[in-house]
Amino acid sequence: MHGAFAKRLPDTVSSIESALRTMAFEKDGIAALAQALENGLAEPFARAVEAVARIEGRVIVTGVGKSGHIGAKIAATLASTGTPAFFVHPSEANHGDLGMITRSDAIVAMSWSGESSELNGIIAYSRRYSIPLLAITSGARSALARAADIVLCLPKTPEACPHGLAPTTSAMQQLAIGDALAIALLEARGFTPDHFRDIHPGGQLGANLTQLRDIMHVGGAIPVVPVGTPMPAAVSAISEKKFGCVVIVDDDGRLAGIITDGDLRRRFDQDLASRIVDEVMSRNPKTMAPDDLAAGALQLIENSAITAVVVVEDGRVVGFVHLHDLLRIGAA
User: What pTM was computed for the model?
Assistant: First the structure.
């Protein structure tokens, strides 16, 4: 029972020391996993990537307990990076969810010991219908490992739990090998930011993956004047468009420069009314291409301490993106 142990209020020093010990144990576990991947785990890992890449169906991830929780996350990561996948709980599989699994699928079964009896049904089903079975376990001679087509045998390292009982380091290793599998498949499939955007349309992530061509101001909405324009007309354009700047183009529509509110303030003591834009403009404004992503525009704006970028194609101005446009779609 929860009330069977004495309750003690932790002190700050002890809590921090405990956290650092936990991270040290888990860091050692990941280091051991990386070392294994450079040795005996390399060949089965490569075969696992190839096997999953070959299937026409989906990856079915299964596991019980903490392995199940990690498995559900791995299934979500696979699905979000171009490998169709979902999690099937082994107990539910034994009560009808086996019908969700087809012969064109592959099964990734997770069990640290490899002896979880709850997996017996789904293991037997995979063998009966020749469905590829990949095991993620530390039990090299376990029932799961003996049944599997490919075994990703994880190295045994001490748990962060001082009693060696709560899955901590082991769960971190399972998560890491699952992420490694997902990213290797992403790269093998040539999964691009465009593909990522297609299946992540919501939230800030979807906004960051929006192409500038989808949000940029075009045509008459661009604050633009030609070279040779008197400064009073340029200032009027800045005021009219309300973007705090005006883009300068040559006779062919190629970008020549930009004038911002800051440029005007810095030259406030000069006789701007008698000048033309060529004498005032900054000649190397920040630019991006129409296919560039909103995330890149936001990074450029933040790193350069500016409020807008000019969108150019083959040297010609085709669009304009302001920080407010990024705020509007939720990218910032």
Answer: 0.65
